[in-house]
Amino acid sequence: MDSLNELIKGKIPCEETGIQIRHTLCAICSPANNCGIDAYVKDGRLIKVEGTQEHPKNHGFLCTKGQANRAFIYRKDRILTPLKRVGERGEGKFQAISWEEAYGEIAARLNGIKAEDGPEAVAFFGGYNKWYRPWLRRFAHSFGSMNYGTESSTCMTGGWIAWKLSSGRLSSPDMGNCDLFLGWAYNPYYSRYLNVKLAEECKGKGTKFIIVDPRITPAVEKLADLHLRPYPGTDGALALCMANILIQKGWIDQEYIDTYVHGFAEYAEYVKNFHGGNIEALTGVPYVQVEEACRMIHESRAMAINENSAPIPHHKNGVQNYRAIMALSAITGNYDRSGGQRPVKHTFTHQVSGFLTREDDFADGTEPKDARPAVGAERFPLWYHMEREMQVVDLSRQILEGTPYPVKAVFAMGMNMRMLPDVDEWEKALKKLDFFVDTDLFLTDTAKLADIVLPACSSFERGEFMTYAKGYAWYTNPVIDRVGDSKSDAEILKDLAWVMNLEDEPLKAGYEANIRDMVQDLDITVEQLRESDLPVHVPGSGQPPMGSYIQGGMDTPTGKFELYSELIAAHPEWGLDPLPTYCEPLNGGDPKEYPMILCSGGRLPHTLHSRLHPIPWLRSMRPDPMADISLEDAREHGLEAGQDMELYTKNGGIFVKANPTSRVPKGVVFFYHGYPEADVNRLLSREHVDPYSGFPAYNSTRCGIRALSGSADHRPGEKPMEKEEG
Ligand SMILES: Nc1nc2c(c(=O)[nH]1)N[C@H]1C(S)=C(S)[C@@H](COP(=O)(O)OP(=O)(O)OC[C@H]3O[C@@H](n4cnc5c(=O)[nH]c(N)nc54)[C@H](O)[C@@H]3O)O[C@H]1N2
Ligand SMILES: Nc1nc2c(c(=O)[nH]1)N[C@H]1C(S)=C(S)[C@@H](COP(=O)(O)OP(=O)(O)OC[C@H]3O[C@@H](n4cnc5c(=O)[nH]c(N)nc54)[C@H](O)[C@@H]3O)O[C@H]1N2
Ligand SMILES: [Mo]
Question: For residue 127, how far is its CA from the centre of ligand 2 (angstroms)?
């Protein structure tokens, strides 16, 4: 008996203990990083996790976030049953109801609003977990609404718009074959730890690294041969200046440009505006360092550039800056060349897998013909032209103002209003809705505003299809008992399609049948996938040979890499520039009152947006909401480490702790998002956005800081500054 207890205590998997190891995936972070997990399970409960050795993505590694899966899945605020609001919105008073009752109410209310105000009066929102997106998009369309939108209104898509304008296709760096890596806004140590191994291998075999980042990060310390430190959002000016130098010195690939590039003459003329006389004033980077970077580019055989989803797009000039950076790949002949930028196609949940599923056919199969354009289509016409979905950043405004038409209900899956700019306005907007449904694992502040809350299950409790780079596909099985009465999002959408009687047989057929349709072109079946409890290699997968895309003609109006976008030129009514022109990033507000720059991007290694803040042992690594400020700024404001301070913008203020550090430049405040008690997105404006993409300028807003006395009425989060009118 004693020895059995020892075995159980040691979590030893064997017959006596009844502990089994089952394989599943971690879905805490983005699908590209859904690592394989060895789940130790006893009596249907998860008791321990480890990284799966045999998994082609993580090969046994698991980060701090993945290690926290048990604490995440059994978080105390897990929702156990469907809930119906009985108190005021936001009060958090709910009564448990049955699934049947919840579905009945949702169907009646959504159909009622559709009958009265039209289907577009209902918006469908999906949060960061991407796995149910094709189903939610199709559901919205089958309901008759173009108002489907996701967290990708603030993530990744800005960069993709830049790529689609330039070359008609997305791209990724061929890091393994380059001898110069231009790590523009690159710190995989925090945001993409699985990329670190390759980066360090490259470093070991002599690849040179330029890191472009305002901060001193682990990537700077471990990899950089040259570190350029522009102020946030000034990257476009820096890239254009580099182009000017490269062109003037003749360090470009003229033959490549003549054959594959469109608009070079206009671009070459424009970049002359960025030079030794102004670049340090514009960006903070000394001209000699820009010259040094250009020399390294000239001396390299092949240069690959980092692609990033957040730091470059999160500015009001994000798409243009992205285009300016990637133009360097074209003028040096590195686009679609070995060791440069590889054009790629994405498949299921946006992965570069080397095979194509029919995901898009499914997601877009029922797009309504004469529906009204989605929310944001007027303000962000390029976004709508390319994405054909709502730009979520404009949704709170449209709910509150009712223009161009009213939105009365939101059906959300995993919505977190705290991730979007101007959270106070979001709260008002969600409170104003006639009907609001949210599904989530946890009773979040956003869920507390809903009329009906549905309990979603985690990746350990459901089975799902997943694709990975290098030709892998996987169909997982549930590995633990479901927590409470939760269901998977895909099941919820299928059930609702029946209850609401949508005329969409495939949607009613359900997840597995839909996956069967999506993989029909592949040399593999759902049965084969389900037989394996690890990812399976899909026969025949792989990338087309380098050079084939440029030679075959690109998917742009001219068939070339467009430095001058003919799509934008053909739409003067959009008011956008065909060239990757630069504008300074900061928003209004008197610089005397708001003398500093707030950069609320960047990642912490042990958190993922809001999801892990409530987990004590992860929170313990950085317990307080802390603003990173330079030592000089700390001195000037009389701030010591850990002292209470106010961080404020034109929109309001939050109380945080000072974290003086030599890692950040003077004049810039870095602050991480997702803390409910000090929510930085309350300080940001939904008007301060990129007109090309609609992306919020999370990373460049004028701000100020002041020390607080530290007395009891000045605790973080308690007494924020009153919001200014107008
Ligand atoms: N200031 C600032 N704001 C930012 C950013 C920034 O850098 N700075 N980054 C932006 C970026 S890049 C992104 S991607 C967004 C992230 O924005 P969100 O996607 O909104 O991020 P989360 O806080 O993780 O919220 C997702 C919610 O989904 C729930 N959830 C998780 N898994 C599931 C599931 O399977 N089903 C359901 N129904 N719910 C689930 C979680 O519990 C959580 O409540 O934030 C953006 N906001
Ligand atoms: N641990 C952890 N990992 C994550 C996430 C998380 O929340 N936590 N979120 C995931 C998500 S949704 C996303 S979108 C990605 C984001 O990941 P990436 O797109 O790779 O970007 P980050 O790692 O956020 O930022 C990289 C660097 O950019 C710098 N930077 C910020 N602003 C600027 C700027 O204007 N110019 C330049 N040149 N550099 C700048 C920051 O200082 C930071 O060191 O991370 C993903 N991975
Ligand atoms: Mo993101």
Answer: 18
Residues 329 and 205 placed together within one structural domain of the fold: yes
pLDDT > 70: percent of the chain: 98
State the closest ligand 1 atom to the C-alpha of 601, by its place in the atom list counted from 1: 7
Is 43 within the bounds of a domain? no
Nearest residue (CA) to ligand 2, atom 34: 232
Clarify whether residues 296 and 229 are in a common domain.
yes
Is 461:25 a contact under the CB 8 Å cutoff?
Answer: no
**What span, in angstroms and rounded, lies between the C-alpha atoms of 304 and 378?**
36
Q: Which residues surround ligand 3, an ion (CB under 5 A)?
A: 155
Q: Assess contact for 554 and 163: CB atoms under 8 A.
A: no
Cα separation, 627 vs 643, in Å, equals: 10
Q: Specify whether 238 is located in the same domain as 89.
A: no
- Paired residues of 126 in beta bridges: 150, 413
Which amino acid is present at 40?
A: Y
**pLDDT tens per residue across span 508-537:** 999 999 999 999 999 999 999 999 999 999
- Closest CA to ligand 2's atom 4: 191
Atom number of ligand 1 nearest to Cα 131? 35
Confidence at 711, pLDDT banded by 50, 70, 90: very low
Q: What is the pLDDT of residues 450-467, one digit of tens each?
A: 999 999 999 999 999 999
Quote the number of domains for the chain.
3
pLDDT at residue 310 greater than cutoff 90? yes
435 with 392, same domain: the answer is: yes
38-45, long-range: CB < 8 A, 24+ apart: 39/460, 39/479, 39/480, 40/11, 40/13, 41/479, 41/480, 42/8, 42/17, 42/18, 43/18, 44/480, 44/481, 45/480, 45/481
Look at residue 152 in the predicted model and tell me its pLDDT. Answer: 96
| Enclosing domain of residue 199 | 171-343
Q: Which ligand is nearest to the CA of 674?
A: 1
Evaluate whether residue 650 is within a structural domain: yes
Smallest CA-to-CA distance from 488 within 511, 518, 468, 466 is with 511
Tens digits of residue pLDDT in 59-92: 999 999 999 999 999 999 999 999 999 999 989 9
Tell me, using a 6 A CB cutoff, whether residue 600 lines ligand 1: yes
Residue-wise pLDDT tens digits, 154-168: 999 999 999 999 999
Please, which contacts does 201-206 make with residues 24 or more away whose CB atoms are closer than 8 Å?
Answer: 202/175, 202/176, 202/178, 206/179
Q: Can you give the pTM of this predicted structure?
A: 0.97
Token pair of 476 as six digits = 């997982």
Listed residues 343, 376, 410: the one ending a domain: 343
Give me 586's structure tokens. 């900061």
Is residue 129 in contact with ligand 1, taking CB distance under 6 Å? yes
User: Where residue 718 falls among pLDDT bands split at 50, 70, 90?
Assistant: very low
Atom 19 (ligand 1): residue with closest C-alpha? 128
Residue 401: CB atoms within 10 Å: 11
- DSSP labels, 644-655: EEEEEETTEEEE
Average pLDDT rounded to a whole number, residues 141-149: 98
380 lies in the same domain as 291: no
Q: Is 310 in the pocket of ligand 1 (CB under 6 A)?
A: yes
Answer yes or no: is 66 within a domain.
no
- Confirm if 454 and 97 have CB atoms less than 8 A apart: no
What pLDDT is recorded for position 402?
98
CATH of the domain at 614: 2.40.40.20
Does residue 332 sit in the same domain as residue 362? no
Beta-strand (E) ranges in 234-287? 261-262
